[in-house]
Specification:
The protein is an all-alpha fold and 139 residues long. It is built from 6 helices and no strands.
Length: 139
């Protein structure tokens, strides 16, 4: 069984940040703190999701090395190929990754606000992915 404790903690932190940002006024220091926390939690949760999905996909490949060579986006395409997630979920995960890649270039307000718009779907998708990761391989 794949250990998802750290992913669960990441999700908790993400959800808490998301809840708290809704309780404060935009433009305040508290809003910026919660937004920054939410963005960082989003990044960490996204990366952890990819790492664990690699482990979940290992039984479908001839070697661990073959899975390790997959890009983040390829991981999700493979998960769809093996009926672990839907095509719609793949498209959303691609969008999440594209958003994450923006952080390396732009930590500005626009990026952070765009990340906020993804939260409802992202939280739902990451919970589903956690279920997929914990499920038994169906080879």
């Amino acid at each position: 069984m794949i250990n998802t404790e750290y992913l669960e903690r990441c999700i908790e932190t993400l959800e808490k940040s998301y809840q708290l940002i809704k309780t404060v006024d935009e433009g305040t220091i508290d809003y910026e703190m919660y937004r920054n926390s939410l963005v960082k939690s989003f990044e960490i949760t996204l990366e952890q999701s990819g790492k664990l999905l690699k482990k979940r996909l290992e039984p479908f490949f001839s070697s661990k090395k073959a899975v390790d060579e997959l890009t983040f986006k390829s991981l999700f395409k493979e998960a769809f190929k093996h009926s672990l997630i839907t095509e719609e979920e793949v498209l959303r995960w691609m969008k999440y990754r594209d958003n994450r890649n923006s952080t390396t270039h732009d930590y500005g307000r626009a990026f952070a606000e765009e990340t906020l718009t993804l939260m409802d779907d992202f939280i739902k998708d990451v919970y589903h992915l956690k279920e997929v990761i914990c499920s038994s391989p169906n080879i």
